[in-house]
UniProtKB/TrEMBL annotation:
Classification via SMART domains: TPR
A cellular-component GO term for this protein: nucleus
InterPro entries the record matches: TPR-like_helical_dom_sf, TPR_rpt, TTC27/Emw1
GO biological process: fungal-type cell wall organization
Name used for this protein in its record: Uncharacterized protein
TPR repeat segments: 673-706
Keyword field contains Aminoacyl-tRNA synthetase: no
Keyword list, A-Z: Repeat, TPR repeat
Top-level lineage group: Eukaryota
Length: 907
């Protein structure tokens, strides 16, 4: 029964789902109900009172060691494993309430744990914040009650019997967590799960993920065995829907973890699995919409059609009372929301025209994408076609979270400020905000926030966006002394229960991150004073300096950073940013010395790779590689650093190093085409052509940007390995990719000639084309159908087409190609001034006459009795005569002229 209670805690179930007849400790049931009611601080109070007196502390030295001893001696020894885990959960939930969701919990945690009559709380808090610093990245100094998180982490490490990350040297190997469904007990798996949540909360306090914490959190949430281990010991009477929810939140948190540690390329498989698990049906499609008040005709727009399965419950009916206000646009031009016409109302003839323009690969519904796209009405799933686009049904909370996670994945994997991407994101947000029914506080407020982020980039919506962001910041009710926007004073509107409901499935956004983002938006529109006021209130010196530097006021940025390092000489990040502004290597070295801050080493590497002219230094590969190596030893999950490391290896000829670096890149992101291509380049230099070819195959399959260099390398290696099917495929793709820009120059003639030689070396049987091999059919299509649409001036190309047509027993088509080859050569404007061009044209004329002579009397296209060219002698003489008239008085004393005379006399 304890496992069932903890399953409800993982799911943040409604407190009414906890019945009183569970065969377990009544106190455990009470604690569970308090946690689910958002009163975790009461659980902390009661359990810490139970374990005995507070810890005597006279100074903050070795505070983590003292707290670890307090946990082992007081908590672990005096509480059973179940209550110890409940305390760890309560500590974490209280910390999240105080820093992420609000309102502040009425608890003085320092006095409960520390008997610090001598010390001020600010001293203790600063020491605890410093203990959460990772690789020189300082934790936010004004974090509320950091002891809650520190205690929760220490306690969870003890419960799971894992090495402490507070004491582990960051140079050591990460203590990877292994979970096995057969061996790991349910309670241990639950403890690991909560530890992963606590680690992600820890990472949210840092400017960017680094150190061992991302690796450990990822190792916990990377295996489905975690969910299997939790479910296996649930009582038999538990409904399947509850088990299904556990698997659902597992996949959602797996995606969240990937986003947090910046391995967003791993999100898609889990998103697909959770979509199938919840039977969530949704699609991105187009529909005509009116967006302004004066618009008479609807124009195309994007819309998400979505419908939830019935097994997932919707938000309860009381939720709307607590939700933040959604500000109206109050625009004289724009509608509050688009008004869509019914899906498929587009005229049939226009649908047909659009259909003809689509490539085969773009047709249909592709479900295995971040956003499944239906290009035409018939591709929309049947159950979604009947939805009213202006009044779609409410989605389950888990499905709304799926959409938000897809939004974050798209944002992290797409170019910034891409208009089409922003339209897709707007469609996602609109589907969540404008759906009928009630909405959860966390989901709705996050959706409003993301809508505001998009709207603050557009002139017509920026006012609503900034007001909405200001309102959401103040809505948290955490450490905001002055309010610009009136808030609902009703106590019920600040119920922590609804705010904590889905906090663990969405990326954590602490209150200061919301505030600093608002400050960035103020800076972007020139409201400098308001932005500075926010940064001063948040005491975020580094962010303030970066914003000043971004607007060109580097002197002010330096002044702020100098004040920061004077106040806190151990802030490695501040030293590194100051080094970036001044381009001073000594500051980066100082940053590395005091905090092992990886960005400092990355900056040093870039500096020595491309030193400024004022430094008087030459490019130094050895030093740059050394600094990158130091950076990667500290944090191995940084894709960009591995990529730069590999590029330097290629550039300076260290192919083993480059191969290792790009192997790491593709293990971190196996969809990165350039990483695969560069890995192949390192293998080519080492003579490993087969390995290089495999890498290039992966590169071409991932090449969404259509990089012709990758395909050209693929072609070259395929030729060397005699992989002619792949050579043909690459040739076709290169022509298709480059024809609009380069025309016939996109044709690799030597390779095409080799393909033609291979093709015509085989036998062709008239009337049995269905028996041709795949290579033969594809090659014929390429040479005879695709190339003629690209050739403009190349006689050589036309002669290749002629050879294949002759092989196909189509002499009339071959003769036609010879005529086009001659025409292409004779129309060269340089024929009257360049003797080489004249001689080439004469050769083309000789080829044409020979073609007339050999093909003219063959059986024509109309069968027996018809000829390819009945008057071939007349046409041959006419061609010679026309060419001689072009060369008369200019080339009549050349060798070419003599050849033409001989040719004319021979007919």
């Amino acid at each position: 029964m304890d496992v069932l209670l903890h399953a409800h805690l993982l799911l943040t179930s409604d407190v009414n789902e906890i019945s009183g007849d569970y065969n377990t400790d009544a106190e455990n049931i009470e604690f569970t109900k308090l946690l689910l009611s958002g009163k975790s601080y009461l659980v902390v109070n009661r359990l810490l009172d139970t374990v005995g007196p507070a810890l005597d502390v006279n100074n903050t030295e070795n505070l983590i060691d003292k707290l670890s001893e307090y946990v082992s001696e007081n908590i672990i020894r005096k509480l059973d494993g179940n209550k110890a885990l409940i305390l760890a959960i309560a500590l974490l939930q209280t910390f999240i309430q105080n820093n992420y969701t609000g309102p502040l919990a009425p608890i003085e945690i320092n006095k409960l744990v520390l008997n610090n009559a001598i010390l001020e709380n600010s001293d203790v808090n600063l020491a605890l914040v410093n203990s959460l610093t990772v690789l020189g990245q300082a934790c936010y100094e004004l974090t509320d009650s950091p002891i809650l998180l520190v205690l929760s982490l220490i306690l969870l490490e003890a419960i799971t019997n894992q090495p402490s990350l507070f004491k582990t040297d960051q140079n050591e190997e990460a203590p990877i967590v292994t979970i096995n469904r057969e061996i790991t007990s349910s309670m241990l798996a639950i403890a690991h799960w909560w530890r992963a949540r606590a680690l992600m909360a820890h990472l949210s306090l840092l400017p960017e993920p680094s150190g061992l914490q991302p690796i450990v959190a990822s190792s916990i949430l990377s295996s489905i065995d975690l969910a299997h281990s939790v479910v296996k010991e649930l009582p038999e009477f538990v409904e399947e829907s509850l088990k299904k929810k556990i698997y659902t939140i597992y996949y959602l948190e797996n995606v969240k973890c990937s986003l947090v540690i910046q391995t967003e390329h791993l999100c898609l498989p889990s998103l697909i699995k959770v979509m199938k698990l919840t039977d969530f049906k949704f699609v991105l499609t187009g529909a005509r919409a009116k967006r302004t008040k004066f618009q008479e005709k609807a124009h195309s727009g994007l819309i998400i059609l979505a419908q939830s399965s019935s097994f997932l419950e919707m938000t309860n009916t009381e939720a709307d009372k607590s939700n933040p206000s959604s500000f109206e646009l109050n625009s004289d031009i724009l509608l509050e929301k688009p008004i869509f016409e019914s899906i498929g109302s587009e005229p049939l003839d226009e649908q047909i025209v659009k259909k003809q323009k689509l490539d085969d690969e773009e047709q249909g519904l592709e479900e295995d994408k971040i956003l499944p796209v239906a290009i035409r009405q018939e591709n929309i799933p049947v159950e979604l076609q009947a939805l009213d686009p202006n009044d779609q049904p409410a989605l389950s909370d888990y499905d709304n979270i799926q959409l938000l996670l897809r939004l974050y994945t798209i944002r992290q994997t797409s170019p910034a400020k891409d208009p089409l991407v922003e339209e897709e994101l707007s469609a996602i947000i609109s589907r969540i905000i404008y759906q009928s029914g009630n909405k959860n506080w966390s989901i709705f407020s996050r959706s409003l926030w993301e809508r505001s982020i998009i709207e603050t980039t557009k002139a017509k919506t920026i006012e609503r966006g900034l007001l909405q962001m200001q309102s959401l910041v103040e809505e948290l009710g955490i450490q905001i002394t002055t309010r610009l926007i009136p808030q609902n004073a009703d106590e019920e509107s600040q119920q922590p229960t609804l705010r904590l409901k889905f906090i663990h499935q969405l990326p954590y956004m602490p209150r200061w991150e919301l505030d600093s983002t608002l400050a960035e938006k103020f800076m972007s529109v020139g409201i400098l004073k308001s932005a500075v006021e926010i940064y001063e209130r948040l005491q975020m010196s580094c962010e303030a300096a970066l914003c000043y530097a971004a607007v060109g006021d580097e002197k002010k940025a330096e002044e702020i950073l100098l004040q920061r390092v004077e106040k806190n000489p151990n802030d490695a990040r501040a030293y590194s940013i100051l080094g970036d502004i001044r381009q001073d290597p000594t500051l980066w070295e100082k940053s590395w010395e005091i905090g092992k801050y990886v960005n400092a080493k990355n900056s040093l590497a870039k500096y020595y790779y491309n030193p400024p002219s004022s430094s008087g230094l030459q490019r130094d590969y050895v030093t740059a590689l050394k600094h990158l190596n130091d950076s990667l030893r500290q944090y191995t999950l940084n894709f960009e650093t591995w990529y730069f490391y590999g590029c330097l290896g290629l550039e300076c000829g260290k192919m083993d190093l480059a191969a290792e670096a790009f192997s790491r890149c593709v293990s971190l992101d196996d969809t990165h085409a350039m990483a695969w291509s560069n890995l192949s380049a390192s293998y080519i230099e080492q003579g490993k052509l087969k390995e290089a070819f495999s890498c290039l195959k992966r590169a071409t399959s991932c090449d969404s940007q259509k990089n012709w260099r990758i395909w050209e390398n693929f072609l070259i290696v395929a030729v060397k390995l005699n992989e002619w099917d792949d050579v043909l495929f690459a040739c076709r793709h290169l022509v298709s990719m480059n024809r609009d820009k380069n025309g016939e120059k996109s044709i690799d003639l030597p390779v095409v000639e080799k393909l033609v030689d291979l093709l015509i070396s085989t036998d062709y049987i008239v009337g049995e084309e269905q028996k041709l091999t795949h290579f033969q059919r594809s090659c014929v299509d390429f040479i005879c159908n695709i190339l003629p649409t690209v050739i403009t001036t190349s006689a050589r190309c036309w002669r290749l087409v002629a050879r294949v047509e002759l092989w196909r027993k189509r002499p009339w088509a071959a003769l036609d190609c010879h005529e086009k080859a001659y025409r292409a050569a004779s129309h060269n404007s340089d024929i009257e001034i360049d003797e080489n061009v004249w001689n080439d044209t004469v050769v083309a004329c000789e080829d044409l006459v020979a073609a007339y002579e050999s093909l003219g009397e063959m059986e024509g296209r109309h069968g027996s009795g018809s000829l390819v060219c009945k008057d071939w002698k007349y046409k041959a003489r006419a061609a010679i005569k026309a060419l001689m008239s072009k060369g008369k008085n200019r080339w009549d004393d050349s060798d070419g002229w003599e050849k033409l005379l001989e040719l004319r006399n021979s007919i």
